[in-house]
# Entry
Amino acid sequence: MEQDLPITGSTNDIFEQINQAEYGAHYLVIYPELVMLRDIYSRYVKTHLENNDEIVLITSYYETIDSVRQNLSSQISANNDSIDIRKYENEGSLIIMDSVKGYFGLDDDDDDDDDKLPHKDGILTFLKQLVKGAESSGKNGVCVFADIGSFYHYHSSNGNNSVDQLVEYELSLPSKYDMKLKGFCIYHKTDFDKRLAEEQKQKLLNHHGKALLTIK
Amino acid sequence: MPDTDNNNHKFVLALDDEFDIVTLIKQALQKYGFNIFAFTDPFMALGHFNLNVKDYSIVISDIRMPGMNGYEFVKKIKQIKTEVKVILMTAFEINDIDLSNHLPTIKIDAFIQKPLSIKQLRHIMERIFN
# Structure
């Protein structure tokens, strides 16, 4: 198999790569520390919500929804204006959700955890609806930051290998979306390095339009 | 809370990928004389537990951590020492069904909802050791 290597760069470099991505982009983004991911998504959200040109969806795993809100709110712009998160959430320009619920559709009373598989069709349907919603409200499209950490959440509870499920899920998605959607699959570096076999890493790197690695 | 002298021989392992959290736990429990070892990396924590298994009596672990989540960590810990007490922590919603699905055969001695309250931690330690 041909060896693909991720594009490496500072948070600033990776932010620029993400910010310049065109609709249809399906990128893989690896981050070594949460603070770097926060910096990237906060800058992106700030830029695009203030321009009122996109719906941004963040599915987080290693931080709570409230933590994401707090991080976004505390990002201060050059003119010391903070982001009014609730306003954007209320008008539907910003959606923050827990990655476990987003991918595995858990309800609190869901007691059937024997076979937790990602709801691929449900996710794509939801994204298509968002794209339609963006178009009808005069926005250019949708951007999703999807933390993949939730796939390992069930690693210890079911007999199946959640990493295999993750790779299968990723490869079932197109390398380029045929709608006004930018998809960024977010991997913590420790998960990427320790949970995935070399062959699986290569498959993922090859499959995504770009693979970006944030470095210190 | 058990007296400080009695706690001197009790090893506590605290694991959370957030440095601030384990530091807080370490500082809080050191006051009561526990020998507390704090880790942000599950693999290092597991290695230390393995080397000092005879001394450890309690493990406090976060759930959502990169590399190895709290459920996986606790399973490994219990395989090494079944009688060790376990406290799980999380900032996320969790219910009994979720917990029993992840750890169907493992007893969790206490559960802490973040944000961490030192008072709550103290009460839990007191209950476990009494």
